Structure formats: C-alpha cells, structure tokens
Amino acid sequence: MEFGQLRVGLVGTGPWAARVHAPGLAEHPGTVLSAVWSRRPDAAQSLAKTYDAVAAGSIDELFDQVDAIAFAVPPAVQAEIAPRAAAAGKHLILEKPIAADLPGAQRLADAVTEAGVASLVMLTLRFAPETRDWLDGINQAGGWRGGGARWLSGALLGGQYAGSAWRQDPSGGALADIGPHAFDLLDAALGRITEVLAAHCGAEDLWHVLLAHENGATSTATLTLRLPVRPTVAEVAVYGEHGYRRFSRSGTAAESYTALLDDFAAMVSSGISTHPCDVRRGVHLAWIVDQVRALTGR
C-alpha cells in the first residue's frame, strides 16, 4: 500500500464484485483493496487471495481494517450493512438501488449525513467520460422540452446475472436494476424529476414511464431486461430549441469505476461529503422508483 491510499473493504463476491469492484480498487492509484467479506467465507477467501487482501471473518472485522467500504450485494443487504459502516466512520461506495425501498434508502442517507462520511452511488453511465461530455453540452445549450430513455436487454434471460434473486423479483427487474440509470440521466439532462405522470408494466418486464421535470419538460423511459435484444440498446435523447441530441452507451464499466474512484479519493482527501451522485441522489432515484411502483401496484 502506498502512502495516502484509501484502504477499501469489499462487501460481496458475486460477478460484479469480481469483474469491476475488486480489480478497480486494486489497480487505482488512490485505493487499495485491503479486505473482503461475504456471507460465503470460501468465496471471500478466494477473491481476497487474488488481490493479496484479507478475508475478514465478520463484518465488524472488516470495519476494523479499512477506511472505506465498497458494496456489491443485493439492495436489502446493502441497506442493512451500510448504515452500520457509516456509523463506524467508513466512507461508502454504494450500488444502485441503494436500498430495496424508499424508507430503507432514507435511513441509509440519514446515517451517512449524521456520520459526515463521503458516499458515491455506482451509476455506471453517469461516470463515463463520454456521458459527462454529453451532459455538459446539453446543460450549456438549455432550452430542452422533452426527452426519452430506452434500455432494452435480455440480461435476465440468461448469463451471469440471470440468477440474481432481487432482479428476478416482480418488484425488482428492470425497474430496480436499470431504472435508476435511466432516471438519473433524464434528470441530469432535463432537470429534476418532480412527478411520475404515468407508468405501466407489461409482459417481459417491459416498463413504460412518463415523467415530469421541474422546468416543465417531460420525458419517457422504456425499460426491460427480458427481451432478446442483441446488442443491448441503452440510449438517451433530448429535444428542444437546439434540435435533437442522442447519446448511446459507450465505454466500459471498468472505465466508469475508475472515474468514480477518482472522485471518491478526491472527496475523502479534501473532506468533502457532497457530490451530484452521492447517497442523496440514491434517495431521489429511490423516490422515483417508489412512485412508479405505487402507480403499477408492484
């Protein structure tokens, strides 16, 4: 470990933890993967060994060895452990959704605020350099009247995430998994979302959502993880006084995670605890998901 590096503990050992979190933390100059904890000790031992980290025997043991915690676990598990981590003074890298429901998200945010620790939510698209450039151009131009997001995928039909119980749950699926990404980008491009005007969920976990923004713009989001669309369609567009501008997903999750860690290390070093993608952003996105569920009975 180099001087000044953040000692980060990883909670979770699933595909996302192994593919993105662990290598990202180990390779970033501002962080070191110090310890791993999982409810499956053998998995924690295996992943920790790969990166010369320690497999913690308990969550409290993990807390004792690190400055920050990165989560790669289901929302309900994150909402259970993350407030304890914040109370222990640990800075947090959170997955979306930050909790299984809105009350859980608010409790987590309250714990983070009370502790004064830094937090970031892993909104993969938002941290991509290409997305940041697109949003900068959108916000500088202004005058947008509406927009839409489409995320069409067959990720839950097969593959490494198809066995994820929280994603397969009727209240989860595309709404909980990719909904936060879509709502976040529409919100960032068009202004804060203030109301869910309409929502419908049909077959194949196909969601259609109509949103109102604070400046009078409206937008739509179409989401599914159960249609055999290859390659995945993940795009956002806005339209208004300056025509029509579209952005499609590009880059890799690893590149986005590196950008997140750049911001995270800078926040901790400078003592800053606020960021456009901090835990409060997670609560706002949880509120949108909660409104959609209320309209659809999910």
TrEMBL record:
<dbReference type="Pfam" id="PF22725">
    <property type="entry name" value="GFO_IDH_MocA_C3"/>
</dbReference>
<keyword id="KW-0560">Oxidoreductase</keyword>
<protein>
    <submittedName>
        <fullName>Gfo/Idh/MocA family oxidoreductase</fullName>
    </submittedName>
</protein>
<dbReference type="GO" id="GO:0016491">
    <property type="term" value="F:oxidoreductase activity"/>
</dbReference>
<feature type="domain" description="GFO/IDH/MocA-like oxidoreductase">
    <location>
        <begin position="164"/>
        <end position="243"/>
    </location>
</feature>
<dbReference type="InterPro" id="IPR050463">
    <property type="entry name" value="Gfo/Idh/MocA_oxidrdct_glycsds"/>
</dbReference>
<dbReference type="InterPro" id="IPR000683">
    <property type="entry name" value="Gfo/Idh/MocA-like_OxRdtase_N"/>
</dbReference>
<dbReference type="Pfam" id="PF01408">
    <property type="entry name" value="GFO_IDH_MocA"/>
</dbReference>
<dbReference type="InterPro" id="IPR055170">
    <property type="entry name" value="GFO_IDH_MocA-like_dom"/>
</dbReference>
<dbReference type="GO" id="GO:0000166">
    <property type="term" value="F:nucleotide binding"/>
</dbReference>
<feature type="domain" description="Gfo/Idh/MocA-like oxidoreductase N-terminal">
    <location>
        <begin position="6"/>
        <end position="118"/>
    </location>
</feature>
<dbReference type="InterPro" id="IPR036291">
    <property type="entry name" value="NAD(P)-bd_dom_sf"/>
</dbReference>
